[in-house]
């Protein structure tokens, strides 16, 4: 029995959609291309997803889960606030360094959101992902600063991260993310030096 046969049709469709949506865009990718890439009949797609819109949302949710796994793998080695912030940046660098059909094209979630109308479930899912990333940064920074300062700094680092991802995607390489991580290191070091740690925080 082949490896493809053992993989459930739903997963094969999601995997195929992930490759094609990232490489060619969601709107430009038709159902026929997805089913051909997955090696399943068109009816199989509609047996697993009510519509292409539902498949696109599933793709976005899968990308979010994929990033969380990259972050958690990095976070296992975190021993300080600085390490925690680096883990977030490194998880994005891991994403950028993965193998793609047409190379790295930036944040797959932002690329997807750019194709969707305002208020759509997919855009809402991308927004929640970005909010969670910023919240994770803030959680790490609370070891160094009071809540308000940690949140404000997390917002700055999130903007730095998004800018680096955009430039890295345009240039098709991950070194912009390495530069951004070094900038983030400087921000966190300055925060520690300023001594904003709360009474209950642990540097």
Question: Can you walk through the features of this model?
Answer:
The structure is a single chain. This protein is mainly alpha-helical and 203 residues long. The chain has two domains: 1-49, Arc Repressor Mutant, subunit A; 53-194, Orthogonal Bundle (Tetracycline Repressor, domain 2). 73% of the residues lie in helices and 0% in strands. The chain has ten helices and no strands. α2 crosses α3 (31-38) and α5 (52-75) packs across α6. The chain is elongated, with a radius of gyration of 19 Å.
User: Mean pLDDT score, rounded?
Assistant: 90
Tell me the β content.
under 5%
Give the proportion of residues in helices: over 70%
Radius of gyration: 19 Å
Detail the poorly predicted runs.
198-203
Question: How many domains make up the coordinates?
Answer: 2
In the CATH hierarchy, what is the superfamily of the largest domain?
Answer: Tetracycline Repressor, domain 2
Count of individual beta strands: 0
What sort of overall outline do the alpha carbons produce when their principal axes are compared? elongated
């Amino acid at each position: 029995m082949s490896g493809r046969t053992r993989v459930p049709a739903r997963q094969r469709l999601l995997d195929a959609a992930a490759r094609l949506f990232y490489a060619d865009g969601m709107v430009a990718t038709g159902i026929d291309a997805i089913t051909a890439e997955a090696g399943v009949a068109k009816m199989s797609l509609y047996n697993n997803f009510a519509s292409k819109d539902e498949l696109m949302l599933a793709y976005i949710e899968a990308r979010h889960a994929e990033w969380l796994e990259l972050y958690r793998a990095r976070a296992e080695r975190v021993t300080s606030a600085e390490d925690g912030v680096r883990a977030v940046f490194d998880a994005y660098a891991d994403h950028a360094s993965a193998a793609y059909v047409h190379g790295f094209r930036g944040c797959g979630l932002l690329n997807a959101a750019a194709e969707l109308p305002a208020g759509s479930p997919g855009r809402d899912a991308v927004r929640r992902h970005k909010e969670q990333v910023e919240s994770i940064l803030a959680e790490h920074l609370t070891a160094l600063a009071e809540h308000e300062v940690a949140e404000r700094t997390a917002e700055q680092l999130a903007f730095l991260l998004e800018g680096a991802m955009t430039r890295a995607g345009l240039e098709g390489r991950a070194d912009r993310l390495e530069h951004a991580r070094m900038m983030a290191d400087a921000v966190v070091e300055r925060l520690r030096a300023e001594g904003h740690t709360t009474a209950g925080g642990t540097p």
